[in-house]
Amino acid sequence: MTPFGLKMRELRAAKGVSQKEMADALGVSAAYLSALEHGKRGVPNWALVQKIVGYFNVIWDEAEELQHLAASSHPRVVVDTTGLSPKATAFANRLAEEIGQLDDTALDALMRTLDERGRK
Question: Is 29 a domain residue?
């Protein structure tokens, strides 16, 4: 499941609607919506995210969060290390191999490291 899929599921649960009901209202298939929630489809386009924002009638901050989550929820990420150091390439490959075994604590630690690096 992607971060965007999790947020959609939470919003649906809070509103008490099924995937089918939501899909009908958005003009997409329930199968597509399910695949989107489970990370089996790519990032939704801007227009669909706006329909979802309208469907849930979310406030500005939440709408911005949904757009950000959608943009960062591609289930098949490609990391291009062309021109980077051999260490960067080795790290990208190692992460690809082991990401499935990392628990939330390890993922949070890696995210904090990246966040801290981004602030420098």
Answer: yes
Q: Are residues 7 and 41 in the same domain?
A: yes
Token couple for 27 = 């003009």
Contact 61, 71 (CB under 8 A): no
> Does residue 59 sit in the same domain as residue 15?
yes
Q: Are 92 and 81 in contact (CB under 8 A)?
A: yes
| Backbone CA torsion sign across 22, 24, 25, 30 | positive
Report whether pLDDT(120) > 70: no
Distance CA 65, CA 70 (A): 8
What is the extent of the structural domain holding 27? 3-71
- Give per-residue pLDDT as tens, 55-87: 999 888 888 888 888 887 777 788 899 999 999
The CATH number of residue 58's host domain is 1.10.260.40
- Whether 79 is covered by a domain: the verdict is no
Helices (H) and strands (E) in the chain — how many of each? 7, 0
H-run or E-run covering 53: helix 46-56
Instruction: Note the pTM of the prediction, 2 decimals.
Output: 0.66
